[in-house]
Amino acid sequence: ALGAKKENIVMFDKDGVINTSRAGLSELHSQFATNSKVTTLAEALDGADVFVGLSVGNVVTPEMIKSMAANPVVFAMANPDRL
């Protein structure tokens, strides 16, 4: 079957990893909660094929991108900061 398996998806929000051990998850969050041992964005990106960033800019470093799988797909869609 094509597509991403739910167990291979790690979602984050402003409070960090949405995981099954987090207290007080909403019904929506619970649908996407992971039970992986990932605790940081850097850990989640290590070996990852795809990154979709929708919240804030400047959270992914060049080192994080380099740690991803060969030929990663990166959708960095947060608004850039202006000086």
Radius of gyration: 13 Å
Order of helices and strands: EEHHEHE
Task: Report strand order across the widest sheet.
Answer: 1-2
Question: Low-confidence parts lasting 5 or more residues at pLDDT below 50?
Answer: none
Layout of secondary structure:
Elements: E1 12-13, E2 16-17, H1 27-32, H2 41-45, E3 50-53, H3 62-66, E4 73-76
Parallel strand pairs: 3-4
Antiparallel strand pairs: 1-2
Description of the molecule:
The chain is an alpha+beta fold. Helix content is 19%, strand content 14%. It has three helices and four strands; from the N terminus they run E-E-H-H-E-H-E. The chain has a two-stranded antiparallel ribbon with strand order 1-2. The mean pLDDT is 89.
Essential attributes:
alpha+beta, two-stranded antiparallel sheet, single chain, 83 residues, 14% strand, globular, two-stranded parallel sheet
